[in-house]
Structures are given as C-alpha cells and as structure tokens.
Description:
This protein starts with a strand and ends with a strand. The chain has helices spanning about 10-20, 20-30, 35-45, 55-60, 60-75, 85-90, 130-140, 160-165; strands spanning about 1-5, 30-35, 50-55, 80-85, 100-105, 120, 145-150, 170-175. By secondary structure, it is an alpha/beta fold. Strand 6 (about 120), helix 7 and strand 7 (about 145-150) form a beta-alpha-beta unit. The protein is globular and about 45 Å long.
Amino acid sequence: MKRIESRDNALVKRVRALSASARERRKLGETLLDGPHLLAEALRRHWPLKTVLFSDSGLRNAEIAALVTQIEASAPATPCVNLADPVFAQLSPVDTPSGVLAIIELPPAGRPEHLQGSVVVLDGVQDSGNLGSILRTAAAAGIADILLGEGCAQAWSPRALRAGMGAHFVLRIHEQLD
Length: 178
C-alpha cells in the first residue's frame, strides 16, 4: 500500500477537488464514496473502484481493516493508498472523517430509453442530503428509475451518496432532464 504524507501530492489535490467541487466532479467524471458503509456496499454490488484511500486512524478501525482485506482479495488491481491523518482530514467531505474514501467513476449520463413501472420524478430538490434520503427511500420501495430535473442537486455528490447509503448502486439515476 502506497503512503502519502504531503498535502501537495497530485492525488491529494485531485481528491480535494472532487470533495469540494461539483464542477470538478463533472470535469473529471469521478466522485467520492465516504465511509466504510458506502465502500462495503460498492464492493457488495461489484461497483468498480478507481482508488481507495485510508487514513492512519482508519486502518486501526476493525471494520475498515476488514475492507482492506476484502479489497485485496476481490479487487487486487485497485490501488490502495494510506494517508497521514492530517492530510486525510483535509480531504474528507465531512467534519468528522470516517477514515476511508474511494474514488469511483460517475456513471455515464443518458436519457432514459424505456421506463416501466413506477418512477420517481424530482424537480428542484436542492439539498443533497434530502436528495440522498429520497433516493434511499425509492430504492427501499423497489423503484428502479429516478428522473432529476435541471434544478436538482447533483445525485452523485459525496453528501448525496452518503445520505443515500448505497441506494445509488441499485438505481438508474437520470440527471439534468427537462
């Protein structure tokens, strides 16, 4: 596992940009998963991970250490990086860092081709935490397609992902629709 202690490292700068900026997430086509629950759900759903970052204190957590073992066994090509706690704290999208972040690609944008069954249509939901909660509820209700209008928060932001608690991995989310 590679170790980074410098805040000036290129990967650290990239993760900081992904954490803070919707524009950078769209430009790079990537976003962040924050926390062991989201990472475990991504692994359970075989969602491809680009890079996983662990803090020193995170590696001392039994739940996170088990995830390291799981990644090494099921996705050995996934780069794992250990960050010093002060560097990791600067990257975390939340006030209390969880100890683990993962970079994933944003799913390709596309218009829904053929919708069947119930669909959730959202317009003007601007709070990403509320959006994530709605997505989590829709997934629990068995709804597969979510249509988001142009005024909605970014569904794949770290905050919406965290509030969705893994719902994103079972939904077909279509953003920026008119």
